[in-house]
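[Automated response] Your request has been received and processed.

Submitted sequence:
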Amino acid sequence: MAAVVFVATRLLRGSSCWSGSRLRFGPSAYRRFSSGGAYPNIPLSSPLPGVPKPIFATVDGQEKFETKVTTLDNGLHVASQNKFGQFCTVGILINSGSRYEAKYLSGIAHFLEKLAFSSTARFDSKDEILLTLEKHGGICDCQTSRDTTMYAVSADSKGLDTVVGLLADVVLQPRLTDEEVEMTRMAIQFELEDLNLRPDPEPLLTEMIHEAAYRENTVGLHRFCPTENIAKINREVLHSYLRNYYTPDRMVLAGVGVEHEHLVDCARKYLLGVQPAWGSAEAVDVDRSVAQYTGGIAKLERDMSNVSLGPTPIPELTHIMVGLESCSFLEEDFIPFAVLNMMMGGGGSFSAGGPGKGMFSRLYLNVLNRHHWMYNATSYHHSYEDTGLLCIHASADPRQVREMVEIITKEFILMGGTVDAVELERAKTQLTSMLMMNLESRPVIFEDVGRQVLATRSRKLPHELCTLIRNVKPEDVKRVASKMLRGKPAVAALGDLTDLPTYEHIQTALSSKDGCLPRTYRLFR
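Generated structure:
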């Protein structure tokens, strides 16, 4: 230790400990520091004389790169967002999903999701596709929703040409062999069985609330393939659907972390004038139906007592979801509805965390903190290009279902009441924070670019959305909530439904001033 101190001392004094000769470090070696008496009266909080003024980075809330959009001759849109980094995310988004299956066997979109990145005209197997991507450090994924199908790849930006070529082949030239279709049937059968056995009922309830809200039309059609259709869907059925919906004018090639001109060149090379595997016949039977909100109830009686067996089994619960029609994401009221959804917040009764976790949202303060027997109360907002649905999901012991439903209806009625300025600012801040934090992720930016361009042919940048959020006033929230409350409710119920109020009683409660259910009297209980 002494040797180290000795060496350091000699260096600071400008002399070398390895030789007798003196090293010249220049003027800086002899500079006297503030502790040496040169600047005895200057505190550390003040700048030192002679030191250049520092220039700090500033945050203006705006992206330096605008989203660029180009439309090719065949109608396909190419959108890109530049972003610093070695890797990029590129994919094809298509106006295709379960909402377009009214004239087809339900479950086609589910099949196509499972069949994605299988063998194509150029690649003999899924393994060959994955090996090609691995050369560029790439991964791939396909996701379908009710209105959008998305094929995406994240890989090194240097492999952009290979990636776009691969995506074009996967989307337009799939082989859909009998073996692959049969494997997909098995995978879907397993997924449906898992859906009915899993302790978390949220995916099943979401399916049921859409079925109740949009009875047998558009977004109310089954997102998962019904069991009876699994054996009926084959290559011919898939091709008849692909012929109508996998057309260039319904597609967007989106990229994040790429040069726009390079992406356009790749699109022209691989996606212009390509003959798809199902032929080049024009789409003749495209469903352009607008979503028709009907309201209604979907019930599924089920024994939930043995959902999770073990040392600490989950208690038997009944799950209820109540929803009302909101608006589409293309309307101006979409932002006030998003703020309202954040203001309601909610979560599970065992969540941990502070304000950032939504502990000061209405469903925590008014519901979970006051009613210890409620296990969950969460607000959800589903929005599409022609409609929307604001829901509250709650769960409790089957014996307290009626009381739980009344608590939910009261919360809906309170949405149309006075909005506290503090809770509104908190909700707006939390929504802005969530938006900006999510948009730090490259795949999230990709999905945002793709979905916006698919719907509107342009993109609102984050700072524009933040401005819209900041401009939401208490009267905006009250106005959209009051308008929503004038509609019919949609109800989904799962579990022991012995004490579930009738749909008419729930509708009456949501039409009342206080949200209370009509009183019922029983001679025997």
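Summary generated for your ticket: The first strand starts at residue 68 and ends at 71. Residues 1-30 have pLDDT under 50 and may be disordered.
If you did not submit this request, please reply to this message.
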